[in-house]
Amino acid sequence: SKKDYHLDYVTCNPVAQALLLNNVKTDLNLIIGLCIGHDITFTHLSEAPVTTLIAKDRLIRHNPGNL
């Protein structure tokens, strides 16, 4: 359940990331470089609105911030 989910490790864990940000009551969440599937999970669980700032892409070797 969401209540019992451990928030110790949030790296590459969209469930923990969303729950952590829900706990601090963010107003807006930005997605930067999440995999397809992880972005969907994060968006689904986020209580705040979500927008994708930088998409992950194979063309740039999954390094979206290196452009």
Automatic annotation (TrEMBL):
Pfam families: DUF1847. InterPro entries: DUF1847. This is DUF1847 domain-containing protein. It comes from marine sediment metagenome.
